[in-house]
Design brief:
Distance between the termini: 37 Å
Number of domains: 1
Number of strands: 12
CATH superfamily: Alpha/Beta hydrolase fold, catalytic domain
Strand order of the largest sheet: 1-2-4-3-5-6-10-12
Helix content: 25-40%
Order of helices and strands: EEEHEHEHEHHEEHEEHEEH
CATH architecture: 3-Layer(aba) Sandwich
Largest sheet: 8 strands, mixed
Number of helices: 8
Strand content: 15-25%
Structural class: alpha/beta
C-alpha cells in the first residue's frame, strides 16, 4: 500500500495510507513526534487488512511523510488534519484509535463529528499534554529558550535527536483542553494505559474517562505496561478492545 497525499487549503499535504474494505472503518491517530510507520499503526494495518476492514493511518502536519515543520505545528492544526482525513478520505461510521497525543486529537475530532464516530480507543492517552506533561517538566533553561527563541529542543527518550516544542504550540493548545469540561460521546470508549508509563501518567486516562458522558466508557490499566504499549501482549489487548468497539458499532440501531 503506497503513500498517498491529501492537499490542504494552505498548500501543505497530509501523507496517508488507506486500505479499502468493509465498515465500520478504523482510523489510527499517532502521537506527538511519531509517524504512521510505528509498530501499533502497522500492526493495526495488517490486522484490518486480514479482516477485509477499511483502515486509514496518516501523518499530521510536520510529522513523518507529511509536509510542514513540527516546530510550527499546533493542536488546532492537528485537529484540522484529523477532520480533513475523516471528512474527505472515509465513509460511514469510524472507530478512532489514538495513541498518546492522538487520544487528545481523537477526542476533539469525535466531539466535532459525533455522527461519524462509532467508537474511540485510547492507548496511553495524553489529553492536554502540553499543560499536564510538558509545562511541568520545563527547566529554567527550557523556559528561557521558549521566551527568547520561541522554541525549546526537548530531549527524546526514544532517539538521539531532541525535538522542538514551540511557545506558540504551548499557548495555542489552551483553546483545545478537554479535561476541564464534559465530552458528550454517544458511543463506547475504551482507554488502555500502562502502570509503568514513565512519560504520561495513567491518571490522565482516568481523568479523561471522568470527563466523558457516554453509554459505555471503560479504563484498563495494564500492569508494567510502558508508554509505547507495543509488545505482543499489549497488542493483543489493543486488538480485543478494538473488537469490542467494532462489534458494538456493527449492531443495528434501534
Amino acid at each position: 500500500m503506497s503513500i498517498r497525499r491529501l492537499s490542504r487549503p494552505d498548500g501543505h499535504e497530509i501523507a496517508f495510507r488507506r486500505e479499502v474494505g468493509r465498515g465500520p472503518g478504523v482510523i489510527f491517530l499517532g502521537g506527538f513526534n511519531s509517524a504512521m510507520t510505528g509498530v501499533k499503526a502497522t500492526w493495526l494495518d495488517r490486522r484490518c487488512r486480514a479482516e477485509g476492514r477499511a483502515f486509514l493511518r496518516f501523518d499530521g502536519f510536520g510529522h513523518g511523510e507529511s509536509t510542514g515543520s513540527l516546530a510550527e505545528g499546533t493542536v488546532g492544526r492537528w485537529k484540522a488534519d484529523a477532520l480533513a482525513v475523516l471528512d474527505e478520505l472515509t465513509e460511514g461510521p469510524q472507530v478512532l484509535v489514538g495513541s498518546s497525543m492522538g487520544v487528545w486529537i481523537a477526542s476533539l475530532a469525535a466531539e466535532a463529528r459525533p455522527g461519524r464516530v462509532a467508537g474511540l480507543l485510547g492507548i496511553a492517552g495524553a489529553p492536554d499534554f502540553t499543560r499536564e506533561v510538558i509545562e511541568p517538566s520545563l527547566s529554567p533553561e527550557a523556559r528561557r529558550a521558549l521566551e527568547t527563541d520561541g522554541v525549546w529542543l526537548r530531549p527524546s527518550a526514544y532517539g538521539p535527536e531532541p525535538y522542538p516544542v514551540s511557545r506558540r504550540a504551548l499557548e495555542e493548545a489552551s483553546a483545545h483542553f478537554v479535561l476541564p469540561r464534559r465530552l458528550d460521546f454517544g458511543f463506547p470508549v475504551r482507554l488502555l494505559h500502562g502502570t509503568a508509563d514513565a512519560d504520561v501518567s495513567p491518571d490522565l486516562s482516568l481523568r479523561l474517562a471522568r470527563t466523558i458522558d457516554g453509554p459505555d466508557t471503560a479504563v484498563s490499566l495494564i500492569p508494567a505496561g510502558d508508554h509505547r504499549l507495543s509488545e505482543e501482549a499489549d497488542l493483543a489487548l489493543i486488538g480485543r478492545a478494538l473488537d469490542q468497539l467494532l462489534a458494538s458499532a456493527a449492531k443495528p440501531s434501534r
